[in-house]
Design a protein that fits this description.
- Helices cover 45% and strands 13% of the residues.
- The protein has 196 residues and is an alpha/beta fold.
- It has a five-stranded mixed β-sheet.
- The protein starts with 27 loop residues before the first strand and ends with a helix.
- 30% of the residues are buried.
Length: 196
């Protein structure tokens, strides 16, 4: 379950009276349907969610089905109230094992820049996307995880401590896409908007 925004209009870094219980700490494990149900509140957000679902499809099409993604950025904040603008993208870190030798991994990345290059992913999918390869040395995995957690668990400008979401690579994306289409029509977008 996605917790309610706190008084600072961000996801809380933990739920309950104090941090301590692992299950009560960010990142919160949720489904894609949870993400869609909570954040498909405007046509701008719907477009970003469509991009996210497409990005996730593309990641899985490369064979990455074990692992999860951290979702963060202004997309999971109440940026409309605080900054008076919609979010422009969603920040993602994908944690999965990339098989092969170093040259094979480089070739995979070069052949799929829309997935692995954050600038291209942002233009293609509205996703500021990054990867942590879980098949590298454990100390490097810890170091990269520390880096991304430190970066994503605080607002860039204010340094405010905040929460984030974690979605398994294998989630309920088809149901989430159906829900997104229904919510989009309710917002005046989608097929109904084109017919009028």
């Amino acid at each position: 379950m996605i917790p309610h925004m706190n008084a600072s209009s961000v996801l809380p870094p933990y739920v309950g009276p104090e941090p301590g219980a692992k299950a009560d700490m960010s990142p919160y494990v949720v489904s894609m349907s949870d993400v869609v149900a909570r954040f498909a509140t405007s046509l701008e957000r719907v477009a970003i969610l469509r991009g996210l679902l497409s990005y996730r499809d593309a990641v899985r099409a490369l064979g990455f089905t074990e692992g999860h993604q951290w979702l963060d950025g202004s997309f999971v904040e109440d940026v409309e109230s605080v900054r008076k603008r919609p979010p422009q993208d969603i920040d993602i870190v994908t944690f999965t094992s990339i098989p092969g030798t170093v040259p094979e991994k480089r070739a995979l990345v070069q052949a799929n820049l829309a997935i692995f290059d954050s600038r291209i992913a942002r233009k293609t999918y509205h996703c500021d996307a990054f990867f942590v390869d879980l098949s590298i040395k454990p100390l490097l995995v810890v170091d990269w995880t520390r880096y991304w957690f430190g970066l994503f668990s605080h607002q860039r400008v204010t340094n405010l401590w905040k929460g984030m979401l974690q979605v398994p690579l294998l989630s309920d994306d088809v149901a989430a896409g159906d829900l997104l289409s229904m919510l989009e029509q309710g917002l005046g977008g989608g097929q109904n908007a084109q017919e009028t």
